[in-house]
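Lecture 7 notes: from sequence to structure.
We start with the chain below.
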Amino acid sequence: MVFDLYFWLMHREIYNVVGVMSGTSLDGIDLAHVQLSKTDNKWSFELLECETVSYSPDWKALLSQLVARTPDELADINRRYTELLAKIISGFISKHQLKIDAVCSHGHTALHQPTNGFTLQIGNLPELATLTNQLVVCDFRTQDVELGGQGAPLVPIGDRHLFGDFDYCLNLGGFSNISFESAGKRIAFDISPVNTVLNHLTEKLGFDYDDRGKIAASAEVDAELLLELNALAYYKLPFPKSLGFEFVAQTILPLIENFDSGIEDKLCTFTEHIALQTALAMPSLSGKMLVTGGGAYNDYLISRLEHYLPNIAVAVPDAKILEYKEALIFAFLGVLKLRGENNVLSSVTGAPSDHSSGVIFSND
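Predicted structure tokens for the same chain:
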């Protein structure tokens, strides 16, 4: 019965799925109902119902401290988070009365240490399928890390197939990452922290985030802090490379806290740092660039990007694509897994070869 289902799914041309994503910025759980179609060997998509479910203060606090947890504590949190995720996914499906082929879920990154051969995304337990009563595709990063890859970024294969009209795709989420074609290969890597640091600083002022970057825009750059941030070893590493919250907790925040400048100036300085590192990461300074993620709402950050990239046409899409692009692409990765097709690019992660990553859990 299960084999027949997989065989049927592998040979479809239209897929009706829910993509689920939780990012390191802790904005909440993004859910996107997506229809994916393949015609004449070309993929297209339609984003239908979309929703972000915010974390409770307790969950947000818990998720922000995962790097400090013991293995036993992480196992318990994983179980509880899977139950939370199942409840939210089931609520979304019920609310919109959806009949879908599968749930394609990234989970939430707890630990990401590819140099140690380890990555952990909580919420990827088999119980997710039984609790939602849905076919589930999840845990997309582990296999790549086991093969010697970075396990990230995974979004670039979606950039290639769904957003190929752009020369560059830049995501400004908890971290920034960029992808582009070079010599027939898709290249992608994490550039720098973004909202993991900006939101941390803004919360010290009593706000969840810096609305449109107004606080940063009203302050001044601390030149010495900017110099030290730009001198960090990560920025000199060749790609493939990726970042986890460990880099923020162990390197970025201690460095920032070592300076006496005000929070507003630190916000301004880190915004400048993001824009400058983005420009330095570009292989060419001309073309069209799609910018998505929560950071695309930061007008001041976008203006600093445009300052450093005057010949790049920066395109910020409509709100639905801006906010749910990653959920959309994890839906796409799940569909590729169901079809038995490669969904991870070795040119991006550094794995020995392209491969089809993720696990499939049946609700039977």
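Points to note: The first helix runs from residue 2 to 10. The chain has a mean pLDDT of 94.
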